[in-house]
Amino acid sequence: MAKALEDIKVLEVSQYESASTAGEMMAFLGAEVVKVEPPGKGDPARYASPGAPKDADSMYFIYLNLNKKSITLDLTKPRGVEIFKDMARNVDVVLENLGPGVMAGMGLGCDVLRELNPRLIYASITPFGCGPYENYPGTDLIAQAMAGAMDNTGFPDKPPVRPGPQVGETGSGVYMFGAIMAALHQRERTGKGQFVETAIADAVLNNMRVPLTISQTGRDQMYQGLAGMKRTGGMTQPYRTMDSDTNDTYVIILATAPHMQDNLLKVIGREGFLAEERKAAGPIALLLDPKLSVPWNEAIEAWTKSRNDYEAFHTIAKAKVPVGLTLNTTQIMNDPHYVTRKTVVQVAHPVRGEFKTPTTPHKLEKSPVEVKCAPLLGQDNEEVYAKLAGFTKEDLAKLKAIGVV
Amino acid sequence: MKALDDITVLACEQFEAGTTATELLAFLGAEVIMVEAPMRGQPGRTIMPTYQKGVDTFYHIYLNLNKKSITLNLTNPKGVGIFKEMAKKADIVFDNLGPGTMDRLGIGYEALKAVNPRLIVTTLKGFGEGPYSDYLCYDNIAQATGGAYTLSGWPDKPPTLPGTTLGDTGSGMHGFVAMLAALHYRDITGEGQFVELAMVDNSLCFDRVPLALRQAEKDPMFTGAPAKRVGNDMAGAAPHGIYKAKDTAGTDNYVAIHVVDQAQWHALLKVLGKEDLLGDERFKDSASRWENREAVNQMVEAWTSQRSAQNAFHTLAQAGVPAGVTQNIPQVMNDPHLIARRSVVEVDHPHRGKFKALGCAPRLADSPVEVKCAPLLGQNNADVYARLMGYTQYELAELAKEGII
Asked: Can you give the residue range of the structural domain that contains A291?
């Protein structure tokens, strides 16, 4: 096999982000991922994106659907449902995020499809997952609210604010990719498929585990100190650089070990600064106790703010001190490290032209990733229907005429 | 049966990113054996002062549920020899130690491949191969590099650290799925391989959607002005954000609402008792509602401020409008839905007693997760060494005397 998942076929009945993410990651590693979209306009992500051109796919859609195939099929029509069921016999995974109960309501629920194909992995992503709120709608914002992420983000003098990353939507897609792979492994051993699910809220919850440890540490004094630091950035403070006002870049340092702190002092020419106090208090107290952290941060910022952003970053990093820059979005997509790793690549879209996009974090020695553009709506009807449903061009034309395809 | 209960993992891991990756494997049944330095164990065990010296931190416990722990001195050639022997019987060797560490210890990929070509050798690094490969990296540095800081918070405030440890846990998630993809390849071909992940790549993955929405749409090659922070807004969506309830106090108990499409808007109007606005031009689609978001937000908050956050949440959700509450940490850990679906579970620790922890996000119907406590340091020396090396208690005692175990 030239790619890790090239023997896997997926029917992806998806909209927006969560299931699209799971499918895209599988597609990057060679799975044949066929997106099944409503005829006419397709996945709402294609068009329901502000600023998207009226007659072309949005970047939001393109970013989430690289390396996939697209077919059109109207699942609200009985004939469409029949065709889907036939195709489901010939695939390994049906992956969906249409919302609680929607697939079942169309006659395409897990029980129905797994009876037709006992080896099928049926994968559902919903906002809350099975439980008291299982029928509640939800998005990334909602999940971030419910799971405590918003409460824990921002500034003490401001309302809760959401983390910018799509922790819930992308996160539930990543977990779903893992769930599918685990189920495929179990299938190798048992010969049977199964139902797998992930919830958007759970994805955020799991990224909150470390802050949530505070809930269990009534007796641990240091944790209580941390609890009082909610929404303060904890042990790190962004340090200004000469480019902060133009590039919005700040230096982030997390030097928790004495030797790292020594190295940092050497870089900024302040060896011996706070030496007695540091010895008495220890490296963590230096960062948490305002009596120490305030002068410490001032000393560091006095140095960083007289340097350019990347210059400060490289100088400190080369001194073996953990450091980063709050890169802005333009910097990220042109960053030499990301480009060298091919984590950011340039792709051509037949209508939108050239664009830069992040790809996959999964670097497998025996599964090199070749990034292909997201498909136009129905781009692969002919090829996929021939293979999965045995349709000729004439069959397709008839189905198009009655709006099934 | 559990999906991965035929898999043995040797884990040279620390802190949060690596431990997260293997904890997910352990939840799904894999035997995850943490290989820890004798006497000290992983740094996470003591990273925060607890109420009593020698007691594991909840930070460590949360991240290492369902695993086993053995002690082994990898700085001693005899210890390295034992590791290589065990690697013959393992399926995965995982590490997230600093750059070059496994190679220096003599258990890098080439060395391990030689003893077991079926081995999946996975490394999770900070920056990974590339121009910055030697630079050290932690959660916040990964988040700074990958865009989380620049995309989070308020326009009038600096880049903000998300309250989720997405750099670490997000990386662990990607490590988890990448290992399973390689496992699938091995299931089909019989071959192991090398898998590499970088925290900075993992972090960037969660930012694809804001990158697309806030910049790529207008500037697909990212040559222009970077995206700005938007607080709780999402361009093109209204309502999208948080609203005051009757019991909003300080930063607690805001109502989060996100209306995605026209159907949800209509449902919202019904709840607000404002169906007379159904045909109103100002709110006829997402773009119009965004233009008139001040009016939208006023109308919504006039309603939410009349009732408690929880009441508003359930009323809206049951009417089909995505809604939530900005829950704080105690609210999250007592959330009835999360408890019912075992996303929050109760566990017992021999020293810490009963505590609440977080469960497993990927759910497999045929591989139920039973959450077990994290192991004490070296808890499994007897059973693991007996199975993998055939050692008796006497031999173990001798090795302990030599400082190997």
From this structure: 239-325
